């Protein structure tokens, strides 16, 4: 496993290269939201570099399975975000952050956006890196990981597709998306994202070193539920579209659950203050 420790450096280098290229593209386009596209690509780069560096080490079946899982997830996510952001202006989240930048916006973006994202990407990818060096034949944990990953990817991809079709229909302008998977959770894409990383973590758990990386999926899930995912998105949503408070009253915030009925939401449901509008569904 000594080669794995060297891989941590290789992975950090891959992340640095991806973010450096992304920063250059951001300067050219005049918007730092392109880093959202680099998120999935960064994991792909780490997986590819780790697979190349681990040649001759680890179990081939596990290595190729984890590599394939990571590439499929990362490339799909990057393509989806790039397609959605084509021709768009700067993301309001980054605009709000950088508008308060002391000194140069770009240097501030490096410290407050690129560096934190790079560190998180490197840490969350630890199960992927580790899987490349694990000896021993795959067992039930790998199969369970593939199953959880598959469910997560399906949730994420189907949720994104359903939302894209909904928002593309002019008849739905001003309406809240509460159909398909969005009927059971307000964030099927974030829920699916979380499952993807729990699946990749499980894929390492046939080996005793696998459970040591449990904080990677924990961090990813925490960011989605309590950090830069769900909270920031819903804060922005509450300012942009009516009917969202009723939607939140009947729909689970993360884990898919049957919609609550009017009777079950009658107590404790807050009314929408005058002048407030609720959100646009978006990733």
TrEMBL record:
Alphabetic keyword roster: Membrane, Transmembrane, Transmembrane helix
Region of interest: Disordered: 255-283
Domain of life of the organism encoding this protein: Bacteria
Annotated TM spans: 6-27, 34-55, 113-134, 140-158
InterPro entries tied to this protein: UstE-like
Stated name of the protein: DUF1295 domain-containing protein
